[in-house]
Structure formats: C-alpha cells, structure tokens
Amino acid sequence: MKRRIITAWILLGSAFSYSEGYSQNITQQQQAFQGIIGRTLADSKESWTKPVKAPAGSPNVLWILLDDVGFGATSTLGGVINTPTFDSLAHQGLTYTNFHTTAICAPTRSALLTGRNSHSVHMGGFAHVAMSAGFPGYDGRIPSDKGTVAEILRENGYNTFAVGKYGLTPDEDATDAGPFDRWPTGKGFDHFFGFLGSATDQYKPDLVEDNAHVQPDGRHLNEQITDRAISFIERQQKANSGKPFFLYYAPGATHSPHQVATEWSDLYKGKFDKGWDVFRDEVFKRQKQLGIIPANAVLPARNSNIKAWNKLPEAERKLYARFMEIYAGYLSYTDHEVGRVINYLKASKQLENTLVFVIIGDNGASKEGTFSGTIDLPRGATNKLSQQEIIKHNLEASGEIGTPKSIQGNYPLGWAQALNTPFKQWKQDANSEGGTRNPLIVFYPKGIKDKGSIRTQYGHVIDLLPTTLEYTGIKAPEYIRGIKQDSIQGTSLVYSFADAKAASQHRIQHYYIFGARSIYKDGWKAALSYHPDLLDLSNNKEGLPKNYVENVWELYNLNEDFNERIDLAKKNPAKLEELKALFEVQAKKFNLYPYITWDDVYNTRIHKNY
Description:
Helix content is 24%, strand content 12%. With 610 residues, the chain is α/β, with parallel strands linked by helices.
C-alpha cells in the first residue's frame, strides 16, 4: 500500500501571513554589504540595509483604463452619455485625441503595463489557452526582462495596487495552486483585487484577492473594486503617511456583460429612440463644436452591413434602444465609481499631488454583440440559430437586459459603429482608427498649466510608462530582481504637456490583431483589413472563411483625412510600398511572425477550448 506523506512546517511567531503576499511580491534586491567583516567584532564595521524611498514630493500615480467604450461614447468626447468625472478631469487637464490602443484587450494591457509592443511581450493574442500559440509573439507569457510599471515604481519607493481586470495571466496558471509569477502580485503589485480573465459577470465575478480566489459579496463589481482601491490607499497612508502610491484602476466596464442597476439605466429611458443614425450625426456635430475633430471633417457613411434605423421593424427599434439604455447607464455608473476614487483623494488632500491618466477604452466599441444584440445565450449558441430566431429570443428576453440574468449582455453592431463616431469599424480591427483610437486624459493640478486644452500629438499605450517615469524623475532600471531589462519602446508624451503645437515624437507604430494590420509613419497609414464583411462572428453557421486570401492594402494621409475616408493606394503606390516594407521590418523586429489569423484560431490546432 502506498502511503501519502504530508509535510508541514510551522513557524511560531512568524510575521508572514497568506494575505500579506508571497515571495513573488518581494522585488527589491538585497543591497550589497558596505561594511567591513573582520575576525572579531572589534575588527568589523556594521552596515545596515537602507529602505528605498521615493524622492520627496513624488506624485502619486493613478492609471484608469476603461474597457470597450468607443471614441464618441462619453460626454467628454462629444457623446450623449453623461460622464461628469471624466469631463471634470479633462476640463482641468489635457485631452489627447490622437492616442491609440492595439484594438483588443490583452495586447493593449500588456503594452500599457510594460511600455513595449504587445508581440514583444508575447501577448499578440491572449493568455487564454484557446487563443494563444507556441511562438514568442503569441504564447501569452510576459517575460521577466520586460518589467512592468508596477515593478519599476515599487523598486523606487512606491506602494503599488491594482483593482479590476488584469487579463494577462495564462489560464493554466490561474488557479489557487499558481504559479503566481504571472499574477498581478508577481508583476509588481503589492495588492490586487479583481479578476484575471478577459471578462466576468458583474454580480458573480470570478474574483481574486492577492493570490487567492475569493467569494464575491453580491454587489456590483465596480462598487467592490472601488471600495478596495480606497481601502488600499487608506491603509497605506495610515501606516506611512506621504508615501507615494501607484493605483491601476481597470474596471471590467464597459465590456460585456452589460449589467447595471435600473437607477442608472432608467436615466436614459427614451434617449436613444431616434436610433444609431441620428446618434452618429448628433455626436459628430458636437465633436466639431468642442474642437475634438476638424471643422471640415466628414462623417463616413454607415457600414453597408448595418441597416438604417428607420428601416427596422418597430419591435426591433424598441429592443435595440433598450440595449443602448443599459449600456449608457453602465458607462455613467462607471464614471460615478471613478468619481468616488477622485473624491476620496480630494477629501484626503492627495489629489493635488496625484498624476492621473485616463484611457477611455482599451480598444474601440465592441462588435461582439452581433447584429441583434446578445442577452443570455451562451457563447457559440447563436451559431445554431437564424437571425430571426435570435431576434425572437431577444424580444422574449428583453426584460432581462442589464440584469444579473443578462450573462452575455451586449448591444447590437449598429451601436458599436455609433459609439465609435467619427471613425469607421470597431474593436479587433487593427487596420482602422475605429478599432485603435481611444482618448487619453492627463490630469495633474500641480503640473498641468494649459488646463482644458486638446492635444493632437500621436500617442500609443506604450507611451504611458515612459511618460510616467520622465514626469516622476525615475530612470528605467537596467535590472529588476537581477534580470537585465530589455529596452522600453514607447515615447514619453511629456514634451507635449506644455506645448500644444509640438511635433509628434512617436513617429512609427505598427498594429496586428489576428490578420488585421496597419502601419503608421509621420501621418501616413497603410492598412489591410481581415474579412471586412464578416461582422457577425457568432452567427456564422459555416464558421470563419477558409483559404484566407489577403485583402487589398489601403493608404491614408491622416494629416488631411483623420477618419480614413479617402483611399490613396492607387494614387500613391510608391508610398504604399514604402509602408508595406516598413511593416515587414517591424513585424520581424517585434515578434509578429508567424502571422496568426482568426482562421488559425478557429480552424487549426490553436483553437483548443474556445
């Protein structure tokens, strides 16, 4: 008979507790001994480790990253959804209208936290087993030589906290057995409270605290993460008043499922009855009035796959308007919860010395709600239903939209295009500004002089880490935990803080998401879409098209045509070939090879469990 042997070590009087963290949390290296060791104490000289302290007056740093919002959703950027917290931060800070993400969540988050392009940090796709691949650009495991902003700031005397969505932990590591080196606490955060995946139910989240899964308390996740963020700061300041902190506040909102209390969604009853076509026109007009877009801009035509609002049956219009009421309430509620953090910092007299960055979305508005919206049907179930069967089901289940039963709640595709006004396309489309352009707000009362102004310099999520380091006076480390660090690839935006007319210093940027791709250089952009007519991914009975053939490259001069209306590929073939060649150089340099497409994900060995 085999005997099971269990070994337990019990350290009486130990100061260690599970909730305080694991050895992965200890990032500061032991300082070298500076004294003298003789044969006797009399011949020796002591040397004591000195605690690392941030420079006096170092600002707190707050990064806020929203999810799946859309450029034209918030009142801050001309939208009709009220976001007074973001409005206030923008009015007292700077709004960057030419800032970019990667077009999808995990690549954006990995690039943001590391200051390096997503494929360079192995996150060209996701950390999910089903959607990762065994190549350096796609295996979903951020290497230790690509340190995060949290690791850098903690080694320079900051406390570091993260709440909300992480999305960068490989599935097979995401149990209570670990390993924990790719959990937030293993990537530089002293404490974490949120979820590790790409999405979660807002009332029954897959909730994690530090290095363990915990039971949610039934309240909306936004409320829970906000409470915990404030608690982290309160406890830290009580223990060490004045020590700077870094807070990464990344709610699951407004990613699906769209779930929110009726007190918020009821604020928008009847507000969207005019439909997505009127919505686009009104937002576009307001964006011009606010100076967010050029006065001579033209709104792109509605996508040919989306029906005109006034051609829809009345029952569908009512259903689709309700989807949008829920989404609007969800976004306003998220703004309210961010406001709780800001108000706490103000009341505790910390806001004046807090550098705040708000990225309104990790990509464009989501196209994953299909043409008719989603409520409670499990992922993939719609493949077995016709469009009319889905509409019939949604009409019957319309009372569940926004409730805890709305486990897949997401608006129809027509609203995705409307929320991305003034751009074309949507989330996942790395070829389009509608997929990649997301506004950035920079707020710092002690340092921002040109309050309430707009910046049009080109920026990308990899720029926030170097911007933070330059503004706080912290140098990028050569080593973290004894591991030599790779170079940071982003460009600091500090040069533009005081100069609205400064020339863009981020001059080249590539994009690639599962086949869709583009390359930007000095205002010019070459782009290649991937299955542009296949929009309703979940209602495609035959699966994604096989025998992928690359579509025709397009060329745009964004300096004159910011929302990509005029394709110059035939008029300027030399510029197009120049940019296509540059894309290949970038692809080889930053781990984009091999090019993995949606076909590969769905129809090959990569798609294991999705």
